[in-house]
Amino acid sequence: MVDVTVRADLALRGVRVAAPVVRSKGAGPTDDGHVVVDGVAMALPLAADSPWSIVDGLLFHDEDPVDGLGMVAAVDRPAFYDLATAEGVPYEQLARLHGSTVLATTVVQTCIRYGVDTRCRFCAIEESLAAGSTTRVKTPAQLAEVAEAAVRLDGITQLVMTSGTSAAADRGARYLARCAGAVHEAVPHLPIQVQCEPPADPFTVFRDLRDNGVTAIGIHIEALDQAVRERWTPGKAEVSIAEYEHAWQEAVRVFGWNRVSTYVLVGLGEDPDELVAGCARLVDMGVYPFVVPFRPIEGTLAVAEGATAPSPDVLVDVTGRVASLLQAAGMSGADQGAGCAACGACSALSVVGG
Predict the structure, then answer these.
(1) How much is the pLDDT for 298?
(2) Distance separating alpha carbons of residues 283 and 261, to the nearest angstrom
(3) Where are the alpha helices (DSSP H) in the chain?
(4) Closest CA to 31 of 309, 334, 351
């Protein structure tokens, strides 16, 4: 089993490997290649100066192999990447492989918060669109087509659907419901997680999502301290923490205990003790705090401003304490059914019982 200190160092310092499956310049705080280490899917920065490397099925630190691990390898390019829609849109531009068995898509690749003064400083949602690696809007029919192929050809076991925030009262959730409904009709056994900001009428919107086949939901706040939110997510910070709490509670009513999650980023300047205390409150609500290290990625304001990742010691400490909270509550990421916590590739929680 991978040691948590090794996992944390890999997350922050990256690895040297040729990775056929890479996610770059998109929504959220990760920009990685996908590997499997001793059966654990990991999304790791690809860094030419990292002391870690993967060679011939082994993980090395400098020149020394790490003992006690099973097979270590980059995730293979999936077969569905070689297909395209009848209109000629490559499937790879519509959805991407995450980890080894997770399909992920950003259904709308623009966000009302992407202005310089309102943008989440770790997010590059529109950079992948500008680079031509994705499309602005994925249709329900396109996503159903890709999901069916990915399940059939590559053994995909879950789907994650996120979106840039819209100006509508539902903040884009209704369109997510339409997309989920189309996928659910095509592959009814495929668990689906959607991710959105708190909508104006959360119970009604969440029930619509559930009725369209959604298994779980991520309502991502990233920081639990309002001052940190105003610094790092200035647009989203206009939605109060109280509104997020209400949305989480309503989501638990609709989807159930441990079927709701939220990203919590380590390294944005939040006091570690206060961050863990906030995670304890989330666990008490039945919400899974998916603890992930902040890493500045290409195309973000964070890189332009010279922001740096947290220390491995802080990441190990916070991850271990949050894992203990989850274990005491009987909450497992795998039990989410679908989503970031169920995948686990971006966090060290999966190697410490979270």
Answers:
(1) 83
(2) 10
(3) 4-13, 127-130, 140-154, 173-186, 202-211, 226-232, 241-255, 272-285, 301-304, 312-329, 340-343
(4) 309
Closest listed residue to residue 293, CA positions, set 326, 273, 259, 270: 270
Mapping DSSP to helix (H, G, I), strand (E, B) and coil, where does residue 273 land? helix
Confidence of residue 353 (pLDDT cuts 50, 70, 90): confident
Delineate the domains of the chain, giving CATH numbers in brackets.
4-351 (3.20.20.70)
Distance CA 319, CA 351 (A): 10
Alpha-carbon gap, residue 93 to 110, rounded angstroms: 15
What is the C-alpha to C-alpha distance for residues 115 and 273, in angstroms, rounded to an integer?
32
Could you give the CA distance from residue 50 to residue 289 in angstroms, rounded to a whole number?
Answer: 29
DSSP codes of every residue in 175-224: HHHHHHHHHHHHSTTS-EEEE-PPPSSHHHHHHHHHHTT--EEE---B-S
Band (pLDDT 50/70/90 cuts) for residue 28 is: low
Please tell me the predicted confidence (pLDDT) of residue 2: 86
Structure tokens at 86: 């009848």
pLDDT digits (tens, 9 = 90+) for 82-122: 999 999 999 999 999 998 999 999 999 999 999 989 999 99
Residue 22 has pLDDT above 60, yes or no: yes
- Residue range 36-50, pLDDT digits in tens: 999 899 999 999 999
Angle at the Cα of 67 (from 63 to 68), degrees rounded to 5?
Answer: 160
Confidence of residue 24 (pLDDT cuts 50, 70, 90): low
Instruction: Report whether 105 contacts 138 (CB < 8 A).
Output: yes
Tokens, residue 188: 């009814």
Q: Which two tokens stand for residue 170?
A: 């539902």
Residues 254, 69: Cα–Cα separation, whole Å: 40
